[in-house]
């Protein structure tokens, strides 16, 4: 799973949730592997997990946000490009949990997060 992500290959990784982002969706489908990867990255980085150079933490990318919070401030996926990797992961986690009207691919969720692949054993 991780090796295929790190190599840039995303087999069958589309996340489908919703018709909306309210959590009232009747049909909720998502790829458990993507959800697990996002959860793993969020759990590690919210505790200040650093990159291989030990010079960057997701906490440093979170202005005006509680480093321990995984709720609030989520945006829909069409806006993901405006946010850094931390917000990308928070948004992914929130949308996976709440349900979203947009189909989500691993490429979209992780497009700006390639540095964190090196953190996964």
UniProtKB/TrEMBL annotation:
Residues 12-121 form the Gnk2-homologous domain. It comes from the Eukaryota. Keywords: Repeat, Signal. It holds the Pfam family Stress-antifung. InterPro entries: GNK2, GNK2_sf. PROSITE patterns: GNK2. This is Gnk2-homologous domain-containing protein.
């Amino acid at each position: 799973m991780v090796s295929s992500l790190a190599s840039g290959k995303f087999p069958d990784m589309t996340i489908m949730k919703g018709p909306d982002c309210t959590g009232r969706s009747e049909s909720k489908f998502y790829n458990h592997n993507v959800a697990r990867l996002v959860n793993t990255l969020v759990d590690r980085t919210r505790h200040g997990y650093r990159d291989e150079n030990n010079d960057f933490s997701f906490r440093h990318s979170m202005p005006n946000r509680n480093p321990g919070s995984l709720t609030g401030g989520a945006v829909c996926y069409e806006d993901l490009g405006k946010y850094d990797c931390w917000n990308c992961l928070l948004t992914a986690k929130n949308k996976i949990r709440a349900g979203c009207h947009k189909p989500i691919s691993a490429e979209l969720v992780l497009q700006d997060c390639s540095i964190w692949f090196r953190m996964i054993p």
